[in-house]
Amino acid sequence: MSHNAKYYRKKISTKTTDKCKKIDTLFKQQAAAQQLTESHSELVVTDTQPTEQETTKQNESEEIQTDSVPSEEFEVNQIEANPESLAKSDTDTDDYEPPKKLKIQDSRKKSAISHELAFPWLYHSAAKEAYFCKYCEFRYGDCKSDSTATSPFATGGVKSLGTHPTRKLEKHHKSEAHQQAETIYLGTGKSDQSPSILQLLQQQNDALKEQDKKRNLEYLETLFKTTIFMLSKRWAITDNLKDMIKFLGDELKYKPVADYFDYHPTITYTSPSSVQDIVSSLSFSIESEILEAIRKAEWYSLLADESADDANREQFAVIIRFVDGGKIREVFLGLLKLQCTDAESLTSSLESILIAKGLDVSKAIFVGFDGCNVMSGVNTGVQRRFRHLVPHQVYINCRNHKLVLCVKHLIKEFPVLEELDSLLLGIWKLFHYSPKRYAVFEEIQETYHQKKLKFIRAAATRWLSHGRACVRLLDRFSSILDSLDAIYDAKKEPEILGYRNMLTDKKTIAAATVLCDALKPVVIFSDYLQGDVHFSRVNMKVKELTDELHHLTERYRVCAEGNDADPDVDLHFSRLPTYWAEIDDRTELARRIRL
């Protein structure tokens, strides 16, 4: 195909045809002209020239045929012949008939839909074939004698909008009577009339929405408070929240819940996914409140410690202490999972959690870690690396860890204490990891009419827990021995026999009584250090602890002299003869059974 421009036809745009006539109008004008020509051919035309008046009439008739008339419809009439020329006609004029009128629709006439879109108050009544104003009809329809209601848009309607419909409609739209009617109809202004129907319906709808909103808020408040209560009691939320809410509404008839169930019996927000969303929302709200309080504090203390869980996963716990409203608050910031436990990794993890929570690292002017080299090392420890981030920070070695280390070093010097430590840990594992063996222990306690208690774990890194574990061992000494005998008689396991031999060793029991008495004041001092500590009183508390330990040695000396007139019943060491007597009886009984 050739690309020469002369072979292409340019498209005609819409703007070019604005002033052109439509095709149907041209055909109608042509038909009218042809009909006029045929009618003139029947007339007899003389050779005389027409007068000036006749020429003027003929020109006017031609203009009527060709121009567009600005009305709803125009007529093309046959031009009447000049009476003088008719008189000179040779033919008979009795057969002359005037041409018929041709009705041509005006192309500028708009439809009723376009006017109704431009003026929302206008509508066309097909029954009355007229236009009406809904505002004025509502306001003045029944007031026929009112002077302001003389507009036909309010009474009989407007049959035709005329040659300028837009002007007519805008004039009515700007009239004072129409503005007043619109105000009353839409209820957008003050009037001496009663509220409109639309306004009443809107008010009723708003009132119902407000009641429903208030009812939903009261139910959600009850739902969240119940969730917080169950979380504080450590109850299972997913399984029990639905039953708890149903109990409040159906059984207790608690008004917020009962009213909500009347309107929304199926939408209770107690499904597992909804409960998870509620817990997440509470967690986010509580955490945001705590973090905002920390951000407002001038400074805070940072405590951190690394430990392994039961699955041997290394975790890093971070705690913050700060002053809020004149009171010291201690909050748990988070638990980090560690891939490596070196000083560099711990420092990086500590910095990352503070930045992630939006806390200013420079405000951590006090840091407290344990006494291991990784945490408290002077050159490359965590406290030294953290000082590069906060140059003015003060490192405080955890006093509880120092106290534990003292007890740990003391135990290393006495093998009997190490044997006691292994005995406490072994018995705890024996009953903790075997429900069947623990059932035997519970049955023996019930036989002795004792309260069913569990054995306390003696933590390897928390030596102060050995005091509580020793107290539980001595309180249930006979029950533990009988349980070991019953378990050994069932399967004859050497491990059980080994624990029984250790438990019937007099030196081991004597060491347990000493730890019970010696660690009791130490545990009290440790609890004081973990509370609201006033550092000005720490030296005084240390002095009281050392004095009490020195006094304990004097009490032991008096008890060892055998003064039974006034025994010291508060000392576990004073009960040592009872434990040794039971050991002798059981050892003698076992010897007789073997013989």
What can you see in these coordinates?
- The protein contains 23 helices and nine strands.
- 56% of the residues lie in helices and 10% in strands.
- Residues 43-94, 105-109 and 144-149 have low confidence and may be disordered.
- The strands form three sheets. It has a five-stranded mixed beta sheet with strand order 7-6-5-8-9. Strands 1-2 form a two-stranded antiparallel sheet.
- It has 595 residues and is an alpha/beta fold.
- A hairpin with a 5-residue loop joins strand 5 and strand 6.
- It is elongated and about 155 Å long.
- It has helices spanning 23-41, 52-66, 83-87, 112-118, 134-140, 165-173, 176-186, 197-232, 237-251, 255-263, 272-296, 343-356, 373-376, 382-389, 399-412, 415-432, 435-447, 465-475, 477-491, 494-503, 506-530, 538-560, 576-594; strands at residues 73-76, 102-105, 122-125, 130-133, 300-308, 314-324, 327-337, 364-369, 394-397.
- It has five domains: 23-105, no CATH class; 112-193, no CATH class; 199-283, no CATH class; 297-397, ATPase, nucleotide binding domain (Nucleotidyltransferase, domain 5, 2-Layer Sandwich), CATH 3.30.420.40; 404-594, no CATH class.
Produce a short descriptive summary.
The protein is α/β, with parallel strands linked by helices and 595 residues long.
